[in-house]
Amino acid sequence: MRSKAPMKNNKILYLLLILLSISVGELFSQNYEVLFTKQINGTDQLFVTNSKGDLKQITTHRSKDSSPVISPDGNYIVFASERLGWWKIWLMDLRTKVFTQLTNSSNAEYAPSWSPDGKHIVFISTRDGNSEIYTIDKNGNNLNRLTNNTVTDTTPYWGKNEYIYYSSNVSGIYQIVRMLPDGSKREVLTSSDGNKLMPQISNDANKILYYGDEHGNLEIYILYILENETKRITNHKLMDIRPRWSSDNKKIVFERGNKDNNQHIYIMNIDGSNIKKVTKKDYNYAPSFVPNGIRLITE
């Protein structure tokens, strides 16, 4: 009589392999964290959430804090705040919980972004009567004005290729422009119809993420530089705006809404697939990824 033990053992081994593959997949799946702004009881506060939907509040000030971006080393958050007057650039040390005001003009200053080495911050200021791009050291020293135009320059991003990318009003349309951190070698990269806002270069410098109204509604696009081809990533009746890359350039975080109802934060693949809503209530905006390997939420 033939024994049934080998067949039974094979089934057990098969089940163990399945369980092992699931465990390994869960182990190596990336639980992306996202900093963002949430409006609560008339104030704007900084929060962090992740792919699992966990939520942690970062600031609790009675005034408005907005547009948080974490430093490359994960030790600081730069953000815009109305803690002392109109919007100014502030820094939070995540280790000591100390807050430092970096700018103090009488005009609005906002939209901060880190240099790749984490030593400098690029931002927008209207201190000279028009929306222009400036840089400042992390300690608040060495303020430099990079643009000087009669038109609006806005939403700068400091790429790892050392260029600063931003949107500039060129003949009535916001186009994507880049320049070096000293303001030199300014180059307009696009010329097509439709406003192109908040450009962000990928780490390999081959793709530029932005949102725009080339098809009427505000949607998210990627410009593939080598192919000179633009791909529309979202197509929704609500506005899809303010996208940002994850540090591995595998995901995009953005906000979707219509300004009249609750605005929510979403994460998706770079081809627009697998869209996941990560906020559940309230008005949420200005998201940015926490770099992979850095955790603000203790699991």
Provide the descriptors you would attach to this structure in a database record.
299 residues, four-stranded antiparallel β-sheet, 46% strand
Structure characterization notes:
The protein is mainly beta. It has a domain at 85-283: 6 Propeller (Neuraminidase), CATH 2.120.10.30. The protein has one helix at residues 5-28, and strands at 33-40, 43-50, 55-57, 65-70, 76-81, 88-93, 99-101, 109-114, 120-125, 132-137, 144-145, 153-158, 164-170, 173-179, 187-188, 196-201, 207-215, 217-224, 229-232, 239-245, 251-257, 264-269, 276-277, 283-289. A hairpin with a 5-residue loop joins β16 and β17 (207-215). The model is unreliable at 15-28 (pLDDT under 50).
How would you summarize what this structure contains?
The protein is mainly beta and 299 residues long. It has a domain at 85-283: TolB, C-terminal domain (Neuraminidase, 6 Propeller).
Q: Report the β-strand fraction as a percent range.
A: over 45%
> For this structure, what is the CATH homologous superfamily of the domain at 85-283?
TolB, C-terminal domain
Could you give the order of strands across the largest sheet?
A: 3-2-1-24
Which percent range fits the helix content? under 10%
Derived structural class: mainly beta
Shape: globular
Secondary-structure element series: HEEEEEEEEEEEEEEEEEEEEEEEE
Number of extended strands: 24
CATH topology of the domain at 85-283: Neuraminidase
CATH architecture descriptor of the domain at 85-283 = 6 Propeller
The main pleated sheet reads as: 4 strands, antiparallel
Report the end-to-end length measured between terminal Cα atoms.
54 Å
Compute the average pLDDT.
Answer: 91
Quaternary state reads single chain
Number of helices: 1
Question: What is the CATH domain class of the domain at 85-283?
Answer: Mainly Beta
Are there runs of 5+ residues with pLDDT below 50, and where? 15-28
Gyration radius (Cα, Å) is 22 Å
